[in-house]
């Protein structure tokens, strides 16, 4: 080889073309990935197709304007207005309770605890709470809030049960986002004499805000469809109750459960439409989270 040969030419001379065996292996693995994706998406498409096909039968203005008060299962009228209002109020209260507790806990675990014993204990209990069945959360609130303290069934009691399920999910999501914040940002802030708490509030949390919001919305989507804890805490009502702190309150999961338990086809149509509305609400919340995250990134630039 000539001494005047450039480094690029020398590297090109040593490179050999990709062997047919490697090409075949690459194509085979790529095909398996596509096949796995198709198999994973089939159940999702099937569920959406089934819910949309059955749910459109009662998707009308009456469904959003009227409750089931005075309407029996075989009657053609009635709607889920009371359940939609109850679900939105309960999820809003759950978010207000769970998000501050979860975010502050995650901040302590990442920014303050280090390898301390208290941090390890908290992490252990968060892991335990992540695996708690939803009905256990409902039983806990039933035993403590309703039976021990003597409070009545209410939407707030349901929110307490949902908060137990939401807190560990938000904690883990927030932890992962805080870990992704570069330490250089923290050290630069400390070098300027900024206290740790101000660094966390004005540097760390804004940097991780997009991921935290996404984690919160995923947690909201999870608890919005929970049925078991609500059956034990909010009870049943067909009337409109906009006060989540007084008396039984409806919700979409219990509305669907109640209607599908009826043997009448008309009630089943309402149940399918309720499921469609619940899926639509969850999709809208996820879309709002994505738009909020995109807006936060644009603002950050």
UniProtKB/TrEMBL annotation:
GO terms for molecular function: phosphate transmembrane transporter activity. GO terms for biological process: phosphate ion transmembrane transport. The keyword Disulfide bond does not apply. Residues 84-289 form the ABC transmembrane type-1 domain. The chain crosses the membrane at residues 31-52, 91-110, 122-147, 153-171, 200-221, 271-293. It is found in: Cell membrane. One of its GO terms (cellular component) is plasma membrane. It is a multi-pass membrane protein. It comes from the Bacteria. InterPro entries: MetI-like, MetI-like_sf, Phosphate_PstA, Phosphate_transprt_permease. Keywords: Cell membrane, Membrane, Phosphate transport, Transmembrane, Transmembrane helix, Transport. Part of the binding-protein-dependent transport system for phosphate; probably responsible for the translocation of the substrate across the membrane. Belongs to the binding-protein-dependent transport system permease family. CysTW subfamily. This is Phosphate transport system permease protein PstA. The gene is pstA1.
């Amino acid at each position: 080889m000539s001494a005047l040969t450039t480094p690029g030419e020398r590297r090109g001379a040593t490179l050999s073309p990709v062997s047919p065996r490697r090409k075949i292996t690459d194509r085979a693995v790529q095909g398996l990935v596509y096949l796995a994706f198709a198999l994973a998406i089939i159940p999702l498409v099937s569920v959406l197709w089934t819910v949309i096909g059955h749910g459109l039968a009662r998707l009308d203005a009456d469904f959003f304007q009227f409750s089931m008060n005075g309407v029996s299962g075989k009657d053609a009228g009635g709607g889920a207005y009371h359940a939609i209002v109850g679900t939105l109020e309960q999820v809003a209260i759950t978010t207000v309770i769970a998000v501050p507790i979860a975010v502050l806990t995650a901040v302590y675990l990442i920014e303050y605890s280090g390898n301390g014993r208290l941090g390890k204990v908290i992490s252990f209990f968060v892991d335990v709470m992540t695996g708690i069945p939803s009905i256990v959360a409902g039983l806990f609130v039933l035993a403590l809030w309703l039976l021990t303290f003597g409070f009545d069934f209410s939407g707030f009691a349901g929110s307490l049960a949902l908060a137990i399920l939401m807190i560990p999910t938000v904690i883990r999501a927030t932890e992962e986002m805080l870990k992704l914040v570069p330490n250089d940002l923290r050290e630069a802030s400390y070098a300027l004499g900024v206290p740790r708490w101000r660094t966390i509030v004005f540097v760390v949390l804004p940097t991780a805000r997009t991921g935290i919001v996404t984690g919160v919305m995923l947690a909201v989507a999870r608890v919005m469809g929970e049925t078991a804890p609500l059956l034990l805490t909010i009870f049943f009502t067909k009337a409109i109750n906009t006060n989540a702190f007084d008396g039984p309150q409806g919700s979409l999961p219990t509305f669907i459960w109640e209607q599908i338990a009826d043997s009448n086809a008309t009630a089943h149509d309402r149940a399918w439409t309720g499921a469609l509305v619940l899926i639509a609400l969850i999709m809208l919340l996820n879309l709002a989270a994505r738009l909020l995250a995109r807006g936060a990134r644009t603002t950050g630039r």
